[in-house]
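User: Can you help me understand a structure? I only have the sequence.
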Amino acid sequence: RLAMLKEHKFASLRYKNSLGTDLEIALPEGHQWFGGGDECPKGYVFVANMPTEEVFTMPHRDGAAGKVVSSMPLNYNGNLIEGLWLVFEKGIVVDYDANSGLQTLKELLETDEGARRLGEVALVPYDSPISNLGILFYNTLFDENASCHFALGKAYPTCIAGGVDMDKPALLAAGVNDSLVHVDFMVGSADLSITGMKADGTEVPVFKNGNFTW
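Assistant: Let's start by predicting it. Here is the structure, written out as C-alpha cells:
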C-alpha cells in the first residue's frame, strides 16, 4: 500500500460517506507516506505504536476544504467529545460543533493558530483487527488503528522530503503545519470512499466501502 501511494503521488484526496463527510485534502509536493516501522540510523526498525494499522502522511496546511464528521468519540485529556464535525476553508476550521464535549473541542481549537489546521492524514481499513474487535478503547493510540483519521495540529517534518533539515520558515512555506498539539480524531466508516486526485486530473479509487481498493 505504501508503494502504491508513493507511486501515484496524489495531489489531493477526496473523502465522502453517509455521516456527512465531504472533504478534499491537498497534499504538499514532496509528501512522504509511512507505515509500520521506521528504520533508525543504526539499522534497527522502530515501531512507535503497537499494534499499528495505519499508513500516513501530512496534508498541506492550507489544503483542507469541506466538512468532516467524526465516526468515533474522541477522548481528549480525559474529556469525551462525541459527534464532532468541522468545516474547513483554505485549510482552517471556520465552523464546528459536537453532540457533547463542545467546550473541550473549543479549547482544543483555540490552543493556537495551528490547532485549527490538519497535520496528519492516515488511512486505516475499516476491516482491520482492531476495528473488528468492536471495542472502543477511549485511548487514541488504540482507537486510531480502527479507523481512518486526521490529526489537528502539528505535522511531522519527516512526512515531506527534506523536512528534517528545514527551519520553521521553510517548513511553513512548504505547507507543513505547526502547533503545540497533535490530536487524532477518527473519520472512517463502513461506507467511506476516498478518491486520489492526480495533478493531471486523473482520479484513482483508494477506498471503497471503508477499505483499500488494493
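Now, to help you interpret it: The mean pLDDT is 94. The first strand starts at residue 12 and ends at 16. Let me know which part you'd like to focus on.
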